Amino acid sequence: GVFLTLWFKPSMVEVIYDGSYERLQGVPMSEAYASTLHITFEVRGGLLVRQIHHWAALIFVASLVVHMLRVFFTGAFRKPREINWLIGVAIFVLAMLEGLFGYSLPDDLPSGMGVRILQGVMMALPLIGPYVSMFLFGGEFPGEDIITRLYMLHVLAIPALLLGLIVAHFMILWHQKHTQYPGTGRTDKTVVGTPMFPAFAVKAGGFFFFTFAVIAMLSAFVQINPIHLFGPFTPTSITSGLQPDWYMGFMEGSLRIFPNWFDIAPFGYAIPTGVLVPGLVIPGLIFGGLGAWPFIEQWITGDKRAHNVADRPRNAPVRTAVGVTGITFYGLLWLAGSNDIISETFSISLYMTTYIFRVLVIVGPIAAFFITKRIC
To answer: Which of 327, 331, 314, 371 is nearest to 74 (CA)?
Structure first.
């Protein structure tokens, strides 16, 4: 990311492209898009570093998800680790926003459409929606300030928040130690671990190099986000067959399949529920439920003891069933975000895929809960 800032110009000033990519020569575009093309085709190693940056972001969020699932299914969020769980949920949400804003910076057609969807969700906020949108964009969409503002959020504000939260996360972990599976000498009052140096440090260092090698190989051989093929953003063009980065797919699916049955207008203020509910209420329930779960479980079970020994998922059937229910709900919304691709690939009516997903997001999680609980 630091490498890319040396050449990227976070500006929406219009220029005429005259770089080395012939297919776009003479096309009007923003300085942001032109500078990204310059990084891609004219800066030595620029395309490789761009792809490393993008692949690393995808893997960062994926690793957060895997880590949180491990913590959830083993009960490692229980007392005294509730605060660290809340910090983890906050890191997860910030990481998604960081990725969304970074994905939006090049000002190509898909990223511009993503910002347009973001603006639509903002506009659905009761009473304050238009004011929030006008404030962020500095006027009517798309305005002239949004890239500069997203850049500030992407390289300064959110990284500072992430750094502070990650430091706090590790300091609490260092104080409380890891949870552990049952074993010799391991109890809720005794933690048997490995020393920070050399054992943990060597293991973490080796893991870093393995991770970097995988990301470098992916970036060298697997194309991602080829912005030169999409062209610059224009409000009159739309994309087809393109989805956002995977971690935003659930919101895309939620917006696509939620029925526009009714809008309400209390006191004369219109509230578009067809955007507000899938764009804000459903994500709020998912992440709010994640953050609240340690306290909900503590209240239901009445278990307020400190726990250092991790559960095996089969020994906590209700918690495991709730987790699989959440995964199923999230996964079906994520799949629904590609209903156009599914429709074209399998020659199914686009409307039919939408109706199928509307049924599945209700029936699927309920079935997942009872099947998982029974298996456990």
So the answer is: 314
